[in-house]
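[Automated response] Your request has been received and processed.

Submitted sequence:
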Amino acid sequence: ALWDMTGVQWGDDSMNATTTIGNATISGLTKYNFTSSGNSGANNWGGTDFSGNTEDIAISAPVKYAYFTVTSASSFSISSLEATIRITKVGPTKTSIQYSVDGGAYAQAAAIEFERPDKTTTFPKETVNLTGVSALQNIAAGKTVTIRLVPVATEGTTTGNWYLNGTEALAIKG
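Generated structure:
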């Protein structure tokens, strides 16, 4: 599935994928508790002020996150996640990638981390290999996987913006 943010400013609370995967049902990419203010610029889907998402609660009880679900009529695997992330100079430099299978507890699959930029920066697309996450391989037909992206305040107060950006803002592959 692929989400293209061309022409988006902040983005709707739920964005449908622009391209989907075979016989999988993909929910809209949904914002949970996001806030926005000011001008996000073009081609950006996201929010502002992630200071409540401290490292110690990022998995157990994040305050703000984005998520989508994948359900397939046949057995499936999720092999990778790709994200093009843009942050302001005081935005969150870490994005925790988490998953839940059929409503079970969330676990961290991986994280994308960047050095603190000195200005608003769109980082090159990051590809996260998920083939080593056994719970995301050979998932039985009819099971639902929820993928959650949590911008993490690793440096205390992170009041800046976090976005998924551009034509290939977010993708999952199986």
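Summary generated for your ticket: The longest strand covers residues 144-152. The chain has no helices and 16 strands.
If you did not submit this request, please reply to this message.
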